[in-house]
Amino acid sequence: MPNPKETASSDCNDSQNTDCSPRKLREHEDSHGGDIPKLCPPNIPSSNSPQIHSMSELMETASEVSKMTIAHEIVVNHDFKLQEVNLSPNSLESRVKETVHKAFWDNLREQLSKVPPDHSPAIKLLQEIKETLLSLLLPRQTRLKCQIEEALDIELIKQEAEHGALDIPNLTTYILGTMAMLCAPIRDEEIQRLRIMADPVHLLREIFRVLNLMKMDMVNFTIQTLRPHLLEHSVQYERKKFQELLNKLPGSLAYTTDWLHKAIAEVSNSDLLPSSSTSGTNGPPVSPCPMAAGKVSFIHSPTAVLNQAYMDLLDWEPGREHYPETMLMDKTRLHALQVEVNQLVIIASVLLVSGNICGNELISSPGCGNRLKRVIKALLEGLPDIRSENALLDISNQIHMEVDTILHQLGYPALSTDKAASLKGQLRNLGDKDNAVRILIEQRIQTFLRHCLYPGGQNSKNLLQGLTSIQEELLEIGQRFGSLINHNRQVFGPYYSEILKKLLLPVGKSETGKIS
Q1: Confidence (pTM)
Q2: Could you provide one GO biological process annotation from this protein's UniProt record (predicted)?
């Protein structure tokens, strides 16, 4: 395990400089039909049959879900790291924790204050400190391991305590020296503060606090070290774990099926079929299929349907339940993207209206656009409904003030009464569902994000026409959205293929194409 000073200052830094961007994961090979897992193996009872699971089975399932979620989080979140839990100062948990800890350390102080002192509790703490220090060592650090074993020989310490010869300050000095060798550079300052503490009880308490931080540093370093390996095998691992869950909980793709079924209806009622420029990737958009009574049904491209389903996640109603099972691990991330996209719609719409009324030269002048964006973002931050009348009223008033300030700074006259009224009125109208400016911006953003679902689509800057004011933010969102969806498609593509084959094809027909 890493974290000795010799690796903390070099290996840790190396890991930070290493390119941790996801490697391109192996594509699913459609030619191997046997690679596609079955949704309900023959030995699994029908989902309509009552399923009774013991508590141990449920706990085991929860454990498997936890493992899969952590592995997924490490892969898709490059900033993932463990952090110390900070309880609210006034919470019940915080008060209970503080009370229990105070009682423990007060008892230790009382035991050490006796004549003669009772060192039993302190010896137990030294044993825990020793075990923690040993856990922070790398396998090759055998010499340091022997030194710790010798310096913190618990049997010898007990004998010294029995004969009144135990020197706790000397032991803590050695412990702090060892911690200084093993800690990451970020902990150096804290350990220096420990060296000047005279109260042994307070010092032991702080040693445990810093050791817990060092253990967390160790885990986070290990995560960074293992990330390239996890990236290489994450698709197979997540798919395997998900299949194991399906084996235990058959019929667990009901919400995913509903989600895809809704996307089929949307594709059928819109002009969202793939263009000829992407038909090579998606296959033919539709194929006629004869049905009863001389009617003709069309088989939509599975990829077109799946892409529509993915886009629906960015327009998910806040109170709507039944999130697709295959997307649950990314629900929070997708909701955050949805909020960011909605904010960009408002920002781009506000800037477009402001430019039309005040002049594009003014809005695009150095610093002006960024200044207005910062103002809008600040006003939208934390709002549950950015379409609300109050939100847009605040934005319209503030934008008017900012524009007047900018005009004054540039030596231009303030907006006329009519222009000011028009600016504020049109900005407030952006909350209307049928507002033409807002609809136009939404469609352009949706077109770009839909293109991000295809390989290399995140780099299609030509689709950002009219979105120059938010280009940087939109490119960043497109990259995150495309990477997230690409990983999901690789993991769950075989399941989507199975579901869409049943939903799109008439009974008795077969489909050779699969979603990769």
Answers
A1: 0.65
A2: regulation of sperm capacitation
